[in-house]
Structure prediction request, 415 residues.
Amino acid sequence: MHYFNFKKGNLYCENLKVKDLASKFDTPLYVYSAKTILGHFSKLKNAFSTLKPLICYSVKANSNLSLLKLLISQGSGLDIVSGGELYRAKKVKCSAKKIVYASVGKTDIEIRDAVKYGILMFNIESLPELERVNKISKELKKKTKVALRFNPDVKPGTHAYITTGKKETKFGMDEETVKSIFASRAKYSNLSIVGIHMHIGSQITKGEPFVKTFKKANRVIRELKRRGVKLEYLNIGGGLGIVYDNEKPQTAKEFAKKVLPLLKESGLKIVLEPGRFIVGNAGILVTKVIYLKETDQKNFIIVDAAMNDLSRPSLYSAYHKIISLAKAGSKKAIKSADVVGPVCESGDFLGKERKISVKSDGLIAVLGAGAYGFSMSSNYNSRPRVAEVLVKNKKAYLIRKRENYQDLIKGEIVI
Ligand SMILES: *Cc1c(COP(=O)(O)O)cnc(C)c1O
Prediction:
């Protein structure tokens, strides 16, 4: 479900013509739909309503403050992975008791800030980290809640770079380590080890890897209970896939139907950490054609957005639909062209071998760019980061200014 549709041959975001937004805010431009974001949040919330889970939106998918505020206003908590994301969470006044914190490399400063803020829970990824959080909590005279991130060694059937629940990845701990930590929990006087956390990967379109994972988790939970361990939380992470091409990802309802019995069986309070599912298809990247370059071998649509603005195609060979803002009328579609940016890398492309009817100066939109789009953008090739606009209540709000050249050199020191 999303609110980007054609009306009379023009692409709209909710009730606003995307072309007008491009004229007003210039290109390249990220455009988000609040209705779409909230729609996905409610779908997930409703699908799991019988469990009343805590939904912690995964900040790294898209960390713009206005989007965080929008989700928090609906009762969402936040899943963070760095001190910078904690800073953002504080800026939007997210209740500390709705913040969970995962990352394999939390530094002392990051841990201290989060302990002081009193976040709901750390998701612990290694024994040394557990010891560090205990030590810092002791220094601060706090008792800190933690969950152990369990690596279930399950294949999620997604790209290798976004697979996190296989043994050979850096994430979480295996069953033996998890059990042995629980067995020696008394050693960690300033921790309450109260949960199991899992996050097996991203863009997972089927239910089966989740089912496998939760079955393994339930087995571990049962065993721990038998040994007298009192658990409170089961955090099932994020990872739900969306449509980029012609995938048929499970809906929130289908997903819930498959996993609800297993989650109920655990008897624990459930935490969800959705990222991509909430914002992925709630955003597009609007870009202008600079040149059409035709060669004997290949045609190129050269646009003003590049891999520094949206890196998923270059990084994961990810597919994004790319469409012309004006629906093809009589105009002839270009035969087949690679959509590329101005960055000096052959890996700089947004799409390969596409048929798009567009002319020089024409506008095109890269769809499904709401998650891991702007949040992964950089200044590579000294390109200022682009502007972001949120369409909400029939209005377009600028939620991040386009950077300028001064922004590029901010902090640099000439010696
Ligand atoms: C990135 C991440 C998520 C969100 O993943 P999505 O695939 O975007 O839903 C959730 N939990 C953790 C620990 C993560 O690192």
